[in-house]
Each structure stands twice: as C-alpha cells, then as structure tokens.
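Lab notebook, bench 4. Still working through the backlog of constructs that have no structural model yet. Next entry is a single chain of 272 residues. Request: give me the structure tokens for it.
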Amino acid sequence: MPELPEVETIARVLRDGSGDYQTSIIGCQVNQAVLLWARTLATPAPGIFEKLIIGQTIQSLSRRGKFLVFLLSDLTLLIHLRMSGDMRVENGHDEAGNPKPFEKHDRLALEFNNGQRLVFNDTRKFGRAWLVKDPAEVLGWLGPEPFDELLTTDAFFEMLHRRSRQLKPLLMDQHFIAGLGNIYTDEALHLAKLHPLALTDQITKEASTRLLSAIREVLGEGIRRNGASIDWVYRGGDFQNHFSVYGRAGSPCPICGTPIERLVVGQRGTHI
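Model written out:
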C-alpha cells in the first residue's frame, strides 16, 4: 500500500507537472467523468457524481494522511489508493484524434478541457473516491500529520501514554497518527531503537522524543527519494534501496551487524 511518502510524491507530480507528467492539472476543468468500476465511488451515487463534477476546476492538490485531496471550484474530491491504486495523466486521444482506450485496471477517469485526462488505476479494486462538500466528513477521524508543528514532543508523549497498546500497531493506526504504514513504521522503530511490541504507556519521555524524530526522519527521506518501489503498485521511487531493516530478513543490521529478524505483529510482517 502506498504510504505517506508515496502519496505525497504522487500529489507533487500531479500538482507540479514534474516526472512523467509534464503538465500540471491545476486549473484544469472537468468536461466529462468516466466511471469504469462503480464501487470505486464511495459517495455520491454515480449519476449525481457525474452531474456535480462536470464543470468543476481543480484549484489545488494536497495530501492528508494517505488521501489525495483535490480542492475543486466548490467541492472536494478525495481519493484513497488503498493496496494497489495509482494515478496517471495522459492525452485522452491518440494521434488520429480518436479517444484513447482505457487500460485493463482503470476505474475512474476525469477528462479535462485541455484534452488531458486524469485516470485512477487500481488492480485490486480496493481504492475509493469521495466527492464531498466538506472533506471533514471523510478525513475528520484522522490523527495528526507527522510533520504538524502542533505535534510537539510533549504532545506525542501524552498521546502514547493515553493508550496501552503494542507500539507498532498503534503507530499504524490512522486514528493515532496519519500516514504511517508497514514500511516506514519498521524503519522508524529501528532508527529509534525501539521494539515493535513495546507497550506505549511504558515508553520513556526520552524514547518518545527519539521516536518522533525518527518518524520524521524516515518519512522525510522517503519523500526526498520519491517513496519506495517494492512491487507493481508504485514505481519511480528509490527509498527501497536505502531500507535499514524492511524486507531485509537475514541480512546484517547496518548498525550492529546482527542478522535482521522477521516477526509477525498485528498480522503484518515486521523487521527488527
């Protein structure tokens, strides 16, 4: 599943027109919506969605947790990539001017007034899209962003001690903090020298401070390297070449040389 750095990279590429997409989609107006898999749309109903989104202009594009947030003229489009979602921008017509056929796993497309189209491709069909007036309807339950200035070391320590849970499952709980998944949690815990099974209400203030710093460091490095490419879902990142522990079971730890072990924590492969 794309995590915070991968979603941030996708948002940046679509917003700035960099990488494979040479033109920003900011300022593009929706001429047509094509829903190729009805269940991709969480809300509203397909007919209402098409009626509402046609004529909308993309004003800005950002990220909240693992959600892409498209601010439109007077509505907000939210997309969660889930396990296998990806976004691409392409010319909607071939060289002869004919409509370009969609790819096998395309689920939703927005065709723009400049001839381009934004396509949501999702092999496993878990991704979802919401068109809402108030994004808080969908995003309101999310925990703080890891880079939020209001997430101070004191606040983070208090958050940990309000719960008594194993550390890794809590960090991956989007209600607690938004954007962390399996990869970056393993990397952050390793950098902070904390065990994934440690109980959160037993973490010291010093260890809590170290953990928040580690979370920000590995996410920042992930963003700098355009995320991690580890399967068919997301391509173009480089962070997978710099993992300290994730996916490296049996290899020596880059710090102490001890062989890296793979555990199962909360039904997720975990590397220490």
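Notes after review: The chain has a mean pLDDT of 94. The chain has seven helices and eleven strands. Flag for follow-up if needed.
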